[in-house]
Design goal:
124 residues, mainly alpha, two-stranded antiparallel sheet, 3% strand, elongated, transmembrane helix, transmembrane, membrane
Length: 124
């Protein structure tokens, strides 16, 4: 830091930085994992249960995909708001949240593969 002798103000020098809490970043990362997982769960549930499939059909030309995506986005937003409020001023180790999020994203991706979600379909 350099201090101006006339004004007494300090200005950061090259290489100086202010360490900010990583809580909001960790909240966004974890919320993304939760939203991805929600999409996989909704996709699998829609295949497993006809009533859920009909419930998720918000728009006939699109079918239940409309409800799956809207539901996943709503869950993601709710998770992001709650986690942001919980983590906003905390020094959180974001590596743990990244690892959890990557696992949730992987599980969510698995839930969207036809070979997986068709295994839960009722027998014809």
């Amino acid at each position: 830091m350099t201090t101006n002798p006339n004004t007494g103000e300090t200005t950061p020098e090259l290489g100086d930085y202010v360490d900010k809490p990583e809580g909001p970043i960790a909240a966004a990362i974890l919320a993304a994992g939760i939203g991805s997982f929600a999409l996989g769960v909704l996709t699998t549930l829609a295949e497993a249960n006809e009533r859920i499939k009909e419930f998720l059909n918000f728009y006939d030309p699109v079918g239940p995909l409309s409800g799956k995506t809207v539901g996943a986005v709503v869950i993601w937003l709710i998770a992001w708001v709650i986690l942001h409020l919980a983590y906003r001023n905390k020094a959180v180790e974001s590596r743990r949240e990244l690892a959890i999020s990557l696992v949730l994203i992987g599980l969510g991706l698995l839930g969207t593969f036809p070979i997986f979600f068709q295994a839960f379909a009722p027998p014809e």
